[in-house]
């Protein structure tokens, strides 16, 4: 509740009354957790899935996402979709002499 109050204070100071109303009207104050089995892994371990559905956090996330998406980033390493990788490899794959792969775990 302290975080929610702090967010509301910041938003009110910045004249975001509409967002404040949505936050106050949200059904849930807490994120929910549910589990799904990783059937493709040995022993079918559980994957924890956290949902912000119907929470005030979802209202804030949507608001921030809309604003951040307006920012145009020119990043030469950004991959917008797998088709761009396939096109690149078709055009220049024959000149690539080395590469690497990363597997990120336990984030």
Please summarize what this structure is.
By secondary structure, the chain is of the alpha+beta class. Helices cover 42% and strands 11% of the residues.
User: Helix and strand string, N-terminal first?
Assistant: HHEEHH
Number of helices: 4
Q: Tell me the span between the first and last alpha carbons.
A: 26 Å
> What is the general shape?
flat
**Overall mean pLDDT score?**
88
The structure class reads: alpha+beta
Q: How would you sum up the major sheet?
A: 2 strands, antiparallel
- Radius of gyration (CA) equals 21 Å
* Approximate strand percentage: 5-15%
Biggest sheet: strand arrangement: 1-2
Low-confidence stretches: none
Helical fraction equals: 40-55%
- Please give the number of β-strands: 2
Protein name: Putative tick transposon
Organism: Ixodes ricinus (Common tick)
Overview of this protein structure:
The protein has helices spanning 2-13, 17-25, 56-68, 82-92, and strands spanning 32-37, 46-51. Helix content is 42%, strand content 11%. It has a domain at 2-70. Strands 1-2 form a two-stranded antiparallel ribbon.
List the helices and strands and how they pair.
Blueprint: H1 2-13, H2 17-25, E1 32-37, E2 46-51, H3 56-68, H4 82-92
Antiparallel strand pairs: 1-2
Helix pairs in contact: 1-2, 2-3
């Amino acid at each position: 509740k302290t975080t929610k109050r702090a967010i509301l204070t910041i938003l009110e100071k910045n004249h975001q009354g509409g967002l404040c109303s949505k936050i106050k009207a949200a059904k849930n104050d807490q994120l929910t957790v549910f589990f799904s089995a990783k059937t493709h892994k040995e022993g079918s371990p559980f994957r924890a899935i956290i949902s912000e559905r119907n929470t005030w956090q979802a209202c804030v996330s949507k608001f921030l996402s809309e604003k951040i998406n307006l920012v145009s980033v020119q990043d030469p390493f950004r991959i917008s979709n797998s088709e761009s990788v396939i096109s690149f490899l078709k055009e220049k794959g024959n000149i690539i002499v080395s590469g690497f792969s990363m597997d990120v775990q336990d984030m």
